[in-house]
Automatic annotation (TrEMBL):
Assembly description: DNA polymerase III contains a core (composed of alpha, epsilon and theta chains) that associates with a tau subunit. This core dimerizes to form the POLIII' complex. PolIII' associates with the gamma complex (composed of gamma, delta, delta', psi and chi chains) and with the beta chain to form the complete DNA polymerase III complex.
Cofactor(s), by name: Mn(2+); Mg(2+)
EC number of this enzyme: 2.7.7.7
UniProt name for this protein: DNA polymerase III subunit epsilon
Role, per record: DNA polymerase III is a complex, multichain enzyme responsible for most of the replicative synthesis in bacteria. The epsilon subunit contain the editing function and is a proofreading 3'-5' exonuclease.
Gene (UniProt): dnaQ
Gene3D superfamilies: Ribonuclease H-like superfamily/Ribonuclease H (3.30.420.10)
Lineage: Bacteria, Pseudomonadati, Pseudomonadota, Alphaproteobacteria, Acetobacterales
Catalytic EC class: transferase
CDD domains hit by this protein: DNA_pol_III_epsilon_Ecoli_like
TM region(s), chain numbering: none
Record keyword GTP-binding present: no
Catalyzed reactions: DNA(n) + a 2'-deoxyribonucleoside 5'-triphosphate = DNA(n+1) + diphosphate
Keywords annotated in UniProt: DNA replication, DNA-directed DNA polymerase, Exonuclease, Hydrolase, Magnesium, Manganese, Metal-binding, Nuclease, Nucleotidyltransferase, Transferase
Exonuclease domain segment(s): 3-173
Length: 230
């Protein structure tokens, strides 16, 4: 059994080195590439303002986050959920950089980069030169992302889990279930059914057809069977 976590964060901006903070963390558990049903999701008080341009992306405002736990308070639960397993993210360097800064503020060691799996890197190798955003990958794999009207970490990890399964060469569980249901509705497969006896019906050309065929062959220049024979 292999376990991995698909993770996403939402933040107050683009650069933790200039003071931007994490305000949402979500992760879903995968067992053998398939979501197990367990997930982790928390909103966080970033302890600073949320710029309007960031709010337009994810929909969170400073007022919505006042009173939420601070990152140091949610860290033990996050670490327990992540365990020691691989952490999958889209453009993972962005999320890991933010988590590095938050972990450092809380006095904790960062998640080792050896555990990082970046689906953006995987997608670029699979589809070089094509758009490889999460939305683009959902469209390419036929994954319904119609509910993604804003960047929501919990919804994004649920979509990314399906994308990751496809990138790893798997099949969407829903498709397998639909196939098995269709097979069941069609009735049992009779592997031991009696063989059907068929009467051979050989086709014998007439003398005229043989003559016409011979004349046609004489018109061919260097037919493959004579070249192979040489």
């Amino acid at each position: 059994m292999s376990r991995a976590l698909v993770l996403d964060t939402e933040t107050t901006g683009l650069d933790p080195a200039t003071g931007d903070r994490v305000l949402e963390v979500a992760a879903v558990e995968l067992i053998n590439l398939v979501p197990s049903g367990r997930h982790y999701h928390v909103l966080i008080d970033p302890e600073r303002d949320v710029p309007e341009e960031a709010s337009r992306i994810h929909g969170f405002t400073r007022e919505m986050l006042i009173g939420k736990p601070k990152f140091a308070e949610i860290l033990p639960g996050l670490l327990e959920f992540l365990g020691d397993d691989p952490v999958v993210a889209h453009n993972a360097v962005f999320d890991f950089n933010f988590l590095d800064h938050e972990f450092k503020r809380a006095g904790a060691a960062p998640i080792p980069r050896s555990r990082m799996v970046d689906t953006l890197v995987l997608a670029k190798k699979r589809f070089p030169g094509l758009p490889n955003s999460l939305d683009a990958l959902c469209r390419r794999y036929g994954i319904d992302n119609s509910m993604r009207t804003s960047h929501n970490a919990l919804l994004d990890v649920q979509l990314l889990a399906q994308v990751y399964l496809e990138l790893m060469g798997g099949k969407q569980p829903g498709l397998e279930l639909a196939t098995s249901r269709a097979a069941s509705s069609a009735g049992p497969v009779l592997l031991d059914a009696a063989p059907v006896n068929r009467t051979p019906r050989p086709i014998v050309p007439t003398p005229e057809e043989l003559e016409a065929h011979t004349a046609f062959l004489k018109k061919l220049k260097e037919p493959l069977w004579t070249v192979a024979a040489e």
